[in-house]
């Protein structure tokens, strides 16, 4: 059970007002808010042991190194990776995807095929297009159905022995659809294709088990699960991380350097050139501890309650249409009212202190599919309440009255 009053006290930002109204923060799918315990971890790092890791013999450097490596182990345990060195700390999902894409440039050959889903975030489309241009591989797309789910029958026909890579998000950021990634992974593995799952939108709600999923790569960003911006992870199966070449050259990623030849460091350092976001990594670990203390089962059941309530109440508004209507959904409601432009609704809601996202949500192909310019997206977190949803409903009604 979630004690939401108690939880809300953990988030200092929830006390602020916007345009004189209490903040109602429903843009959690873009970034989540930060609990005090994570803010404390950041302050503690810069106040007490800020220094570079893995190099110094001095005490501060050793403390920072220990904390950073402890964070890696927290992340490893959370995702149930077999080994800590299969967790590469990156600057976030986009960076992680690009690392894998650039690594595959040396593996793919002309005529090989890459499959992506129609539900992708731009960060999961563009790197593959660039990779195809570079290698002559061909990009195939799993089409979507009207309810916002993937056309799995079409997928089973697309995947074949030319398929080398399959990319799909675990949860769609634009619609909230939870994709059947177990089935996607299993079908790809029949043809020895690797699978990368973008978990940026799933990890705030679901605790993924990368070994049970048998996934080859899984990526996510800390800032969507109560951590800071600028840090995230690339999980890769050891065999794949050994196979891929390093992404960047620099300090930390080498074993020996001479002008004739450089040998690379072992995992994970091979992929962690330069000084990383040390404080961010440590704070990411603190965020994972916080989320686990709240409990992912509690989070999922409470957010589902919010989703059901919000869906039911929003649908009472005349002319309101929700996009993404599968039963397998996280707490994201993407909607439009009649012909009103989503941006206009969003601007009025902001004046009322309500933060929603409007636009194409970095997923233009989905908007093209529905032939709409964008949607208003309200995304809930475990620190939101039904009372806040009521404020949203009244706000939307007011916006509709003003705009129609
Ligand atoms: C947010 C998001 C991304 C991008 O994450 P960054 O932290 O901006 O790199 C990618 N995919 C999905 C599904 C997302 O929700």
UniProtKB/TrEMBL annotation:
<comment type="function">
    <text>Catalyzes the removal of elemental sulfur and selenium atoms from L-cysteine, L-cystine, L-selenocysteine, and L-selenocystine to produce L-alanine.</text>
</comment>
<dbReference type="InterPro" id="IPR016454">
    <property type="entry name" value="Cysteine_dSase"/>
</dbReference>
<keyword id="KW-0808">Transferase</keyword>
<dbReference type="InterPro" id="IPR015422">
    <property type="entry name" value="PyrdxlP-dep_Trfase_small"/>
</dbReference>
<dbReference type="Pfam" id="PF00266">
    <property type="entry name" value="Aminotran_5"/>
</dbReference>
<feature type="domain" description="Aminotransferase class V">
    <location>
        <begin position="24"/>
        <end position="392"/>
    </location>
</feature>
<keyword id="KW-0663">Pyridoxal phosphate</keyword>
<dbReference type="InterPro" id="IPR020578">
    <property type="entry name" value="Aminotrans_V_PyrdxlP_BS"/>
</dbReference>
<dbReference type="GO" id="GO:0006534">
    <property type="term" value="P:cysteine metabolic process"/>
</dbReference>
<protein>
    <recommendedName>
        <fullName>Cysteine desulfurase</fullName>
        <ecNumber>2.8.1.7</ecNumber>
    </recommendedName>
</protein>
<dbReference type="InterPro" id="IPR010970">
    <property type="entry name" value="Cys_dSase_SufS"/>
</dbReference>
<dbReference type="InterPro" id="IPR015424">
    <property type="entry name" value="PyrdxlP-dep_Trfase"/>
</dbReference>
<dbReference type="GO" id="GO:0031071">
    <property type="term" value="F:cysteine desulfurase activity"/>
</dbReference>
<dbReference type="GO" id="GO:0030170">
    <property type="term" value="F:pyridoxal phosphate binding"/>
</dbReference>
<dbReference type="InterPro" id="IPR000192">
    <property type="entry name" value="Aminotrans_V_dom"/>
</dbReference>
<dbReference type="InterPro" id="IPR015421">
    <property type="entry name" value="PyrdxlP-dep_Trfase_major"/>
</dbReference>
<comment type="similarity">
    <text>Belongs to the class-V pyridoxal-phosphate-dependent aminotransferase family. Csd subfamily.</text>
</comment>
């Amino acid at each position: 059970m979630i004690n939401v009053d108690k939880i809300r006290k953990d988030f200092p930002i929830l006390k602020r007002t916007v345009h004189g109204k209490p903040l109602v923060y429903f843009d959690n799918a873009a970034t989540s808010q930060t609990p005090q315990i994570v803010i404390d971890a950041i302050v503690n790092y810069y106040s007490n042991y800020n220094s570079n890791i893995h190099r110094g013999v001095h005490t501060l450097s050793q403390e920072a190194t220990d904390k950073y490596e402890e964070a890696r182990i927290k992340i490893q345990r959370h995702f149930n990776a077999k080994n800590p060195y299969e967790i590469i700390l990156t600057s976030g999902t986009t960076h992680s995807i690009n690392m894998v894409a650039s690594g595959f440039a040396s593996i793919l050959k002309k005529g090989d095929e890459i499959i992506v889903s129609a539900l992708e975030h731009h960060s999961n489309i563009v790197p593959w297009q660039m990779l195809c241009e570079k290698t002559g591989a061909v990009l195939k797309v799993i089409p979507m159905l009207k309810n916002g789910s993937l056309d799995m029958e079409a997928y089973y026909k697309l995947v074949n022995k030319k398929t080398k890579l399959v990319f799909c998000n675990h949860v769609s950021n634009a619609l909230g659809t939870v994709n059947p990634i177990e089935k996607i992974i299993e079908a790809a593995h029949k043809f020895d294709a690797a699978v990368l799952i973008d978990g940026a939108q799933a990890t705030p709600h679901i605790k993924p088990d990368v070994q049970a999923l048998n996934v080859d790569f899984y990526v996510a960003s800390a800032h969507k699960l109560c951590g800071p911006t600028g840090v995230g992870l690339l999980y890769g199966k050891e065999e794949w991380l050994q196979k891929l070449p390093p992404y960047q050259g620099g300090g930390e990623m080498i074993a020996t350097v001479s002008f004739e030849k450089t040998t690379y460091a072992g995992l994970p350092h091979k992929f962690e050139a330069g000084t990383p976001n040390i404080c961010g990594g440590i704070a990411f670990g603190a965020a994972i501890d916080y989320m686990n203390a709240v409990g992912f089962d509690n989070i999922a059941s409470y957010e589902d309650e919010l989703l059901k309530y919000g869906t039911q109440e929003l649908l009472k508004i005349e002319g309101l249409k929700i996009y993404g209507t599968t039963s397998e959904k996280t707490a994201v409601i993407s909607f439009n009212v009649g012909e009103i432009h989503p941006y206009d609704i969003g601007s009025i809601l902001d004046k009322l202190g309500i933060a929603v996202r409007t636009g194409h949500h970095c997923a233009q192909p989905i908007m093209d599919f529905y032939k709409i310019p964008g949607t208003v997206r309200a995304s809930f977190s475990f620190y939101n309440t039904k009372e806040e949803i009521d404020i949203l409903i009244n706000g939307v009604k007011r916006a509709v009255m003003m705009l129609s």
